[in-house]
Amino acid sequence: MVFSACQDQIVNESTNGQAVYSTANKPTEVPPPVIKTISAPDSAISIAPPTPTSVSTDESPPTPTQPVSTIQSGERLAETSTVEVVKPAVPPTFTSPPEPEASPWDHYWFRRPVPDDTALWTDKAYPYGNTRGGLLRPHHGVEFNVPMGTDIYAAASGQIIFAGEDTETIVGPDPGFYGQVLVIQHDFTLEGQPVYSLYGHLSETLLGPGQEVESGELIALSGASGVADGPHLHFETRIGANSYQSTRNPLLWLYPFPERGVVAGNISWPDGQSAAEVPLALRRLDGESPFAATTTYAEASINSDDNWDENFAFDDVAAGYYLLIVGSGEDKTEKELWVYPMQTNYVEIQLGE
Ligand SMILES: [Zn+2]
């Protein structure tokens, strides 16, 4: 897959929760996002955000203009022998409907925790909830494939609550799993719940518990400590509690690259049960774009966002018109959707409908 096109696009700053970008190739100082703590005392649902499906294809986006060639030439000639077969003069055109407002359920409040000149893209081969084809335990975070000793930055402001080896204090599933690891409790909450970010398999932590950090502050160096098959950063988002059982998909927290958004959704079986480890692919219909593939979350122990209830997510999808392909072969199900930048583009599909 080709991702190099945008690797020089730099996240510069964040204001009002909106990312501002430039292509300057320099380390960035990212002011903390303005925190949109939802303060409805009873429940978030009561504030009646737009329904997630309003972002999906249920709105029936305009059908791409069909070229004349879609008419079967045999039919035309059968009607009259004087009509010539007309070749399409122009390819199909696509006009996006007006961009919907981002849902209040969105929380793209984290900058990327690695330098701009390294692997800013998350590893697509081992996303959140994935088992890499059953080879690995379900992933509770995402990977940034950075070399040994890379500067690691705080994804947002907060206070460090753990830094060091996780041999005595269990931070992951087992003692020593994350090796040198650092956890930040952020100075904002999500609907009253504390928000944490975790940085695992480090070679060195540079700050200690109790220290306050700003977004983008240097906190550690990457490594391959703990259970890791090579140098990379394991990045986790935890909500409500600092525990391995409380993770959420970081792809719904890291703000996207310019003109890119997130496609997330829920794939269920005909009986309504969540469909686990179903292959998914995204194919762009209105232009060239790298092919993207993922799978739905592996099992029920993988948490979804409390509001979205998603079981898959694609990050950094260029804005455009797409075909989401669920499954493969004769069993595949397809759905078209518009992808808008800087927001969650939600799709719900019940298989066998
Ligand atoms: Zn990982």
Mind explaining what this structure looks like?
The chain has 353 residues and is mainly β. Among the domains are: 144 residues, Glucose Permease (Domain IIA); 91 residues, Sandwich (Immunoglobulin-like), CATH 2.60.40.10. The strands form four sheets. Strands 3, 4, 5, 6, 7, 8, 9, 10 and 11 form a nine-stranded antiparallel β-sheet that branches. Strands 14-13-16-17 form a four-stranded antiparallel β-sheet, with no helix packed on it. Strands 15-12-18 form a three-stranded mixed β-sheet, with no helix packed on it. It binds zinc ion. The site of zinc ion (ZN) has 4 residues, from loops.
What share of the residues does DSSP label as strand, in percent? 25-35%
Topology-level CATH name of the domain at 109-252: Glucose Permease (Domain IIA)
Low-pLDDT segments: 1-83
Give the C-level CATH assignment of the domain at 109-252.
Mainly Beta
CATH architecture level-2 label of the domain at 109-252: Distorted Sandwich
Helix content: under 10%
Q: Order of SSEs, N→C?
A: EEHEEEEEEEEEEEEEEEE
Number of beta-strand segments: 18
Q: How widely separated are the two ends?
A: 32 Å
Mean pLDDT: 80
Major beta-sheet overview: 9 strands, antiparallel
Count of helical stretches: 1
Please identify which CATH superfamily of the domain at 109-252 we are dealing with: Glucose Permease (Domain IIA)
Distinct small molecules: zinc ion
Please state the structural category: mainly beta
Radius of gyration over C-alpha positions, nearest whole angstrom? 22 Å
Task: Give the overall shape.
Answer: globular
